[in-house]
Design goal:
276 residues, 14 helices
């Protein structure tokens, strides 16, 4: 496992040298603080904590931002290094291809995790300082939101690696990565909503609906963060969905982990068979 650790540390140090971690952390912190400040306005009207409002806002932001950052980091992990010739040099050393893939993935996951935890953590500490009395259910929801944001980022890193291992041209990988972002973040739910409206409950049973929701990691993330806590589900307008969907949190966590493991395993199989 030593080569995996060395490659992971190299990816992390490259990210720090390129200021990728710092820039991503500052972006997340700025957006999180902005949402925290804007979210303080409605709390007196709806009677919930400022932190609960912030959880809803940050969860909605995360669905758009974290997958995009993850795909931008991962799309050229294989194709880009192959195009530059650095991958051929790396594989000339006594290191297995799966170790290269695992090391690069761990390094990129660390970059994304550091940026997410620090960026959102700054907003959380700012809220704690401004409102010393907050705690309880909203605090648990905030901590769960940060943790699942890291898992969501890792899922899209895996998708990015699958794309990168499947093509040779980094420009093609970039185009496919943007297509994947558009599909999972925007188009999938729009199409699902259209099908639900057209079907009027005739064909799509509750079981089919559950499967369709599990087929999209962003929907799993929404269900984990916007339906599990009463205040956040009401604020997000998902209280009705929370009553209808019969998916417990263990199932949702397992599905999100599967979205990390399965695309990464597929990328490993493709990379192992690929001609360099």
């Amino acid at each position: 496992m030593r080569p995996v650790g060395i490659i992971a540390l190299r990816e992390l140090s490259d990210g720090l040298r390129n200021r990728r971690v710092i820039a991503t952390t500052l972006l997340m912190a700025a957006l999180a603080l902005t949402l925290a400040l804007l979210g303080s306005a409605p709390t007196g009207t709806v009677g919930v904590s400022q932190l609960a409002v912030t959880v809803v806002g940050l969860s909605s932001l995360t669905v758009f931002l974290v997958p995009l950052i993850a795909l931008l980091i991962a799309h050229d992990a294989i194709a880009g290094e192959l195009d530059r010739g650095t991958l051929t040099l790396l594989l000339s050393y006594p290191v297995a291809r799966w170790q290269v893939l695992a090391g690069k993935f761990i390094g990129h996951a660390l970059i994304l995790a550091i940026a997410t935890v620090l960026g959102y953590g700054i907003a959380g500490f700012a809220l704690a300082y401004a409102s010393p009395g907050w705690g309880g259910e909203a605090t648990t929801a905030f901590a769960a939101m940060v943790g699942t944001s890291v898992l969501l980022g890792a899922a899209f890193l895996s998708l990015g690696y699958l794309i990168s291992a499947s093509v040779r041209d980094p420009r093609t990988a970039a185009g496919l990565a943007m297509g994947a972002w558009l599909f999972f973040v925007l188009l999938y739910d729009m199409a699902l909503l259209g099908v639900l409206v057209a079907d009027q409950g005739r064909t799509l049973t509750l079981g089919v609906m559950n499967v369709l929701l599990l087929a999209n990691p962003t929907d799993i993330y929404r269900l984990l963060n916007l339906t599990g806590v009463s205040h956040t589900s009401l604020l997000a307008g998902m209280a009705g969905l929370a009553d209808q969907v019969r998916l417990d949190r263990i199932t949702l966590f397992a599905a999100l982990v599967a979205w990390i493991a399965i695309p990464l395993a597929a990328a490993g199989v493709i990379f192992a068979r690929r001609q360099i």
